[in-house]
Q: What sequence folds into this?
């Protein structure tokens, strides 16, 4: 019995030591502080270690959230009420859960490992979307985003642009560094002011109209 009690106390001591070694005293105080509702106009978080305090928050309100290098990011832990979201260089392979952030108007998912963006199709309030430097081939989910004004999909593996042809409010479109061969379907985008098609496999006869950037 004495040995059992000693072992229990020893394990509890190790646990406390682990907690204290994981977080500094300042961080432990922040955990208590952030246990209630927290509101921000803009919040920037760099690296996973700075995410820790928000896992203890009961309710986080923020309009513009910027996440950089947060490799353990799970979207169902991100506030659904945000209007702007930037998630760069987080090695994202999935954005499952982002479909519930229906207030989003500006979204940047550049420099990740995304091949599937199906979860974007419900974000119908989006006006600005950047998904540069990923592994996109299929962009069909974008066809429902009729409010888009700027769209940047540079440095992916895109071939088919048909899903974009109904996005008639587009003013700016960057499709550079892809595998596109035909852009005739873009003729419907009569409001375009900027179009970047550089570094693709497009034959001049397939170009819709000048004088856009090639």
A:
């Amino acid at each position: 019995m004495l040995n059992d009690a000693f072992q229990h106390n020893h394990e509890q001591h190790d646990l406390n030591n682990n907690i204290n070694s994981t977080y500094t005293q300042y961080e432990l105080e922040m955990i208590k502080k952030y246990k209630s509702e927290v509101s921000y106009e803009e919040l920037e978080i760099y690296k996973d270690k700075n995410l820790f305090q928000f896992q203890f928050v009961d309710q986080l309100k923020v309009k513009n959230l910027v996440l950089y290098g947060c490799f353990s990011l799970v979207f169902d832990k991100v506030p659904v009420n945000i209007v702007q979201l930037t998630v760069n260089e987080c090695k994202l392979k999935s954005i499952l859960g982002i479909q519930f952030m229906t207030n989003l108007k500006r979204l940047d998912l550049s420099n990740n490992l995304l091949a599937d963006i199906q979860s974007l199709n419900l974000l119908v309030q989006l006006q600005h979307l950047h998904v540069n430097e990923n592994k996109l081939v299929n962009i069909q989910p974008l066809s429902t985003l009729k409010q888009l004004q700027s769209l940047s999909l540079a440095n992916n593996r895109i071939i088919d642009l048909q899903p974009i042809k109904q996005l008639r409010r587009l003013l700016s479109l960057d499709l550079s560094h892809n595998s596109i061969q035909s852009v005739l379907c873009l003729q419907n985008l009569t409001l375009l002011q900027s179009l970047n098609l550089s570094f693709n496999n497009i034959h001049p006869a397939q170009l819709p109209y000048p004088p856009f950037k090639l």
